[in-house]
């Protein structure tokens, strides 16, 4: 797994992470299960050129310097950047053509999920305006110490008067942060009263800030805004749960597809009048509590007219004008249903099992699959891992009847169940280890950049790239036991001058 980011000095750093399965773990105990999957940060590689061939050469050179044999690599996981993921001239294509022909490329599932939400934003007209309001609320209360102090003061008053359990801050809305959309919406709901009262107080000041406060207050109390924030909170909440799981290094492809299918089914079940009526009941109660009139009519815009160019045409709708959404049926038809439909279309398209035959084979190793241990489905995976197809067929015929009463739910459970019989089913064990090794997401590389920014700051921006890589390695891989005495001895041998 690799990803790139720029440090505080403007140097482009490539983070390299290796995922392995520890076959020494012999028990399915939950305390040891997390140590079954290991993702090791190997270091940063400074990039001077950014074309695909240079990136490929740098990756191969770096792994070779650590004596890591590329022939054992079975998968690559990158984000969707074209220089990495391009199927003809990207890094993943060049690595397969030149070094590891049997390896597969996996587009990071966490990045895919982020793209789902980004595309939903573009497909529903009002959402771009809605997200703009959310972002402006954060900016208004964080760029000025006066507005920030007013907001904190109102929060403290409400905590005393209304017994609010906790005081939370307004969260930033960001395109590249996977959970920022849900957390920003959640923070607005939790702080809705404080936001309203703060804006009202700032409006009464009569300063330059009052103009922006008045506009935000009107937007915050608009029924369409309130309805949308509850709809997105409900739907994005389910996606957030999926996102949290996909970012875990202990998840495998079988479990990932099971979770994705479950979330798709749950979102699909929400698309009904009964579910919307239940949600709208919560919205109504919230509006009553916060003195918002859901029945208020939207200010009449200028009358829609059709261009004279179309006077001889049959025109059923106009372009560039928003539909007036001012009652529950329109909330349902123009916001609730379109958002659900957009999410379902995006998720079904981006997470389809049929995209890669090998991934279908991985799913066939899961006990809850309808094609469990079917050799036809496992052929491509078997070829990639260089296993004997005849041995696999014989082992599958013997193992399937033995697992009829099995309680295994996923690939990990099956691995520990078959492990005591490793000598009898070596091919299937090998397939299970390979399936668990293939990464689902590259979020570990993203976490290394967070540590990099803590180590190389503006006050320490002259450190060398090798030093940055070494310090990051020590800070990230803390589980390794370091013998300081041996390090001191090695240092003393290399540097004869005792004054050092």
From TrEMBL:
Which superkingdom does the taxonomy of this entry point to?
Eukaryota
Query: What are the residue boundaries of the HAT C-terminal dimerisation domain, all occurrences included?
Result: 421-479
Q: Name one Pfam family in it.
A: Dimer_Tnp_hAT
In alphabetical order, the GO MF annotations are: protein dimerization activity
Q: What is this protein called?
A: HAT C-terminal dimerisation domain-containing protein
Recorded source organism is: Rotaria socialis
Q: What is the lineage of its organism?
A: Eukaryota, Metazoa, Spiralia, Gnathifera, Rotifera
């Amino acid at each position: 797994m690799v990803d790139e980011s720029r440090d505080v000095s403007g140097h482009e750093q490539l983070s390299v992470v290796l995922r392995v399965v520890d076959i020494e773990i012999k028990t399915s105990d939950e305390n040891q299960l997390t140590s079954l999957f290991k993702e090791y940060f190997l270091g940063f590689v400074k990039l001077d050129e950014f074309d695909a061939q240079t990136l490929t050469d740098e990756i191969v050179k770096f792994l070779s310097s650590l004596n890591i044999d590329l022939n054992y690599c079975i998968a690559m996981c990158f984000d969707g950047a074209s220089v990495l993921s391009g199927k003809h001239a990207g890094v993943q294509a060049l690595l397969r053509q030149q070094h590891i022909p049997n390896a597969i490329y996996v587009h990071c599932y966490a990045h895919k999920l982020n793209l789902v939400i980004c595309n939903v934003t573009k497909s529903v007209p009002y959402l771009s305006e809605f997200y703009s309001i959310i972002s402006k609320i954060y900016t208004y209360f964080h760029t000025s110490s006066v507005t920030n102090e007013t907001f904190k003061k109102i929060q403290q008053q409400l905590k005393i008067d209304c017994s609010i359990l906790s005081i939370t801050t307004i969260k930033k809305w960001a395109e590249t942060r996977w959970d920022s959309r849900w957390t920003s919406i959640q923070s607005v709901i939790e702080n809705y009263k404080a936001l309203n009262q703060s804006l009202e107080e700032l409006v009464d000041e009569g300063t330059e800030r009052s103009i922006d406060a008045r506009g935000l207050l009107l937007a915050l109390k608009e029924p369409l805004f309130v309805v949308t924030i509850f709809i997105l909170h409900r739907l994005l909440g389910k996606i957030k749960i999926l996102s949290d799981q996909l970012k875990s290094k202990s998840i495998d492809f079988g479990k990932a597809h099971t979770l994705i299918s479950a979330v798709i089914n749950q979102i699909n079940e929400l698309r009904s009048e009964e579910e919307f009526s239940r949600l709208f009941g919560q919205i109504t109660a919230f509006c009553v509590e916060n003195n918002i009139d859901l029945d208020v009519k939207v200010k009449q815009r200028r009358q829609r007219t059709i261009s004279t160019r179309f006077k001889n045409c049959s025109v059923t709708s106009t372009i560039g004008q928003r539909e007036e959404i001012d009652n529950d049926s329109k909330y349902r038809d123009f916001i609730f249903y379109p958002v659900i439909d957009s999410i379902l279309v995006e998720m079904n398209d981006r997470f389809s099992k049929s995209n890669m035959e090998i991934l279908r084979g991985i799913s066939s190793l899961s006990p809850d699959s309808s094609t469990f241990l079917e050799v036809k489905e496992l052929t491509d995976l078997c070829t990639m891992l260089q296993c004997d197809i005849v041995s696999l067929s014989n082992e599958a015929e013997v193992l399937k009847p033995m697992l009829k009463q099995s309680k295994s739910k996923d690939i990990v459970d099956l691995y520990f169940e078959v492990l005591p019989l490793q000598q009898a089913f070596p091919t299937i064990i090998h397939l299970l280890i390979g399936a668990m090794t293939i990464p689902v997401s590259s979020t570990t590389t993203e976490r290394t950049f967070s540590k990099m920014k803590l180590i190389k700051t503006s006050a320490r921006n002259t450190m060398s790239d090798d030093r940055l890589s070494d310090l990051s390695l020590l800070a990230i891989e803390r589980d390794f036991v370091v013998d300081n005495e041996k390090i001191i001895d090695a240092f003393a041998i290399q540097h004869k001058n005792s004054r050092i």
